[in-house]
Amino acid sequence: MSIRENLEKEKWLMVLSLLVAVLLWLFTAGERDGQIALTVPLEYGNLSPDLAIVNHPPAQVEVTVAGPRILLLKLRMERMEIPLDLSGAREGSTIFGGLERFVRLDRELRVTGLSPAVVEVKTAAARLPQGK
Which terminus of the chain has a smaller tally of CB atoms within 10 A, N or C? Predict the structure, then answer.
């Protein structure tokens, strides 16, 4: 029996071996921890119409996330944003700290870094156009 005939005869064994190898890779990749850095946009909302933002708060933050690599791969494909509610803002400064609690993650993932860690939004009375 030639090698070619033997290979054709044992194709099912090659397919099974490949399937087992892929399953083992998925299992080990999912078990190992990793870390990624993501750029997450900040969404400023609910600002009273009689107020205006007078400083230039950041449009995004850098979030570092750790956990199983398979979940990190999935996370990379998701669209994330951090909503910041300005409905209670008054004239002056509003400071947002602890932004990591606004990052929605699977239970097995955790935020290990965030920059900037604090966002300050300065507001003042909005100027109405002349004649109104």
Answer: C
Write down the pTM of the prediction.
Answer: 0.73
What is the 3-state composition of the chain as percent helix, strand, coil, each rounded to the nearest 5? 30, 35, 35
Which amino acid is located at 33 in the chain? D
Cβ neighbors of 104 (< 8 A, separation 6 or more) are: 80
Nearest-angstrom CA–CA distance, 73 and 112? 17
Identify the helix (H) or strand (E) that includes residue 71. Answer: helix 69-76
Angle made by CA atoms 123, 125, 52, in degrees to the nearest 5: 50
> How far is residue 50's CA from residue 41's CA, in Å, rounded to a whole number?
25
Dump pLDDT digits (tens) for 50-75: 999 999 999 999 999 999 888 898 99
Number of structural domains in the chain = 2
Q: What is the domain extent for residue 60? A: 33-125
| 131 located within any domain | no
Q: Is 33 left (phi over 0), alpha (psi -120 to 50) or beta?
A: beta
